[in-house]
Each structure stands twice: as C-alpha cells, then as structure tokens.
C-alpha cells in the first residue's frame, strides 16, 4: 500500500498519531517498578563509553552507572543487583526496550528465578518506557552543558548529575526523589563557603558547587518549558477486533528494496491476533518476518476490502503477497 495517511482532525494542518497515552500501572512503593536503558556512543572518559540508566517509576529517582561499553545480559543483571536490589530490595517489574540484553534467554531466566516480571516495549514505540527516555534526555542536557568543550571528562560529572536529578522536586509527586525514598532531603551542598587549607579540596568543592548550581537552573528551566501533555498532540485511537485485517506502516521496517522513497508506505494486510492493551495489538505475521509482532496503534491502518474486479459471482481477487523483510526475496506485484 503506497498512499500516505490523510486523517486530519478538525482545525489541524497535519495528521496526528493515533492512540491516546496509556500510562503504565502506578506503583505503590519506591523501587518496585523500574525502567532500564542505556546511553551509548559517548566519548571515552576514564575508560567508560556507556551509562546504564535505572529509573524508579514511583519516586522518579535514578541511578547512573558508567560502564566501559554495552554489557551483556548477565552483566546488566549483576549491575542491577549490585546498585539497586541490595539497597532497595527486589522489584516487581522492570520495563525496557527490545535491546539484545533485554530479549535474551539469560535475562528472562535470571529474573524468572527472582520472581520479577519483565515488560518489553511494543515494536518501534519507545514511549512505552517514556520515563526512562525522558530521564536520558535530561541527563544528556546536563552533560552537554558542562562537557561540550571537554567531552572526555563527562564521567567526572555523572555523580553530580545523579545527585541533582534526585534533588529536583517532581511535579507528579510534589517531592524530590530523595524525600520520596528516604523521607528527607539531604543537604543540597553542605559547604559554608570557607576555603580549605588544602588547595585541591578547595578547588573540588568550588567546582562542584558551580556545576550543581548551573545544573539545577537548567533542569528547572526545562521543567517550566514542558507544559503540554502527550494527549494534546494525539488523536483518538481506532478500535480493532481480533480477526480484523490491518495495514502495517513501513516507517521503521527495513524493506529489501533499492529505494525507500519509492517503496510502499504500508504492507499487509495482516490479521489481528489479539489486543494487548488499548493502544497495542499483536499481528499474525509470516514466519519469515524477523520482527516482533506487537505494534502500537499509530503504526496500523484499517484494511477495507476492494470491490471485486471479476464479473463472475463468487470469484474473489487474491490479494498480493506481502513484501519480505530482512531475509528472503522481495517481489513487486
């Protein structure tokens, strides 16, 4: 299917993505529901090029762990145990994207033994783990502010980035993550301004105070700019039933065709197997499609059967075979 979507709401110039925001269940205690992701491709800083970001969905607290590179599934699980579980106990659920660490058998087996539920984002829809994605953006803004001219020193500021994030009052709770988890707010900067007799110590405190103050102002400014909600930029999601056929957007799917511009905008139609949640559906894909079969509703489009071209009663035109992705041969029909 090659046509672009043209569902324009009243008064809008551009089509809005379908599907209202469906928040994840609200946790009842700190560090019971976590979000996990990575910041990758950073310049080498004291041997580290990656950051493991762990976010508590209840208090919005975070842990930032510098790593020499993307770890394996088992190494990631060990970091979670050493930096979170042994301090706050085992969680109930962990949300992540579909990176290789989080879809491996080792990852599933590790947390199955611990009784922890693993939740993966739907295909090509990172908003499922939106809190962690937003935290990564804020941390990136922090590091850019102080490391743009000396990028090899980002790991030196990571501790203050975590401290600042956990000291920032959250609009959703009215508390800082420290207050929500510990019951009190630690001193923002316990220094009376008196110089130390040791120059190195004095320099460290002065530099840290400057970094924290500027970071706090930057984060407060970012919160003031974030006024709108996700639903203001989204349209109402259409409702599909199991057994109904839909088209699947090729926006994030790699087709084995020479030119993306001239390729189909949608492939299919595919049959809906079941509704995972109000904005996510599982499709019945051919076995040669090497992609996860669960998609957000914004990537789907209803299929309307065409009028039969044959004049003979009871003779239906066979639909063309869908294009193959990743492996196999592609045919133009």
TrEMBL record:
It comes from the Eukaryota. It comes from Hemibagrus guttatus. One of its GO terms (molecular function) is nucleic acid binding. One of its GO terms (biological process) is DNA integration. This is Integrase catalytic domain-containing protein. Residues 26-185 form the Integrase catalytic domain.
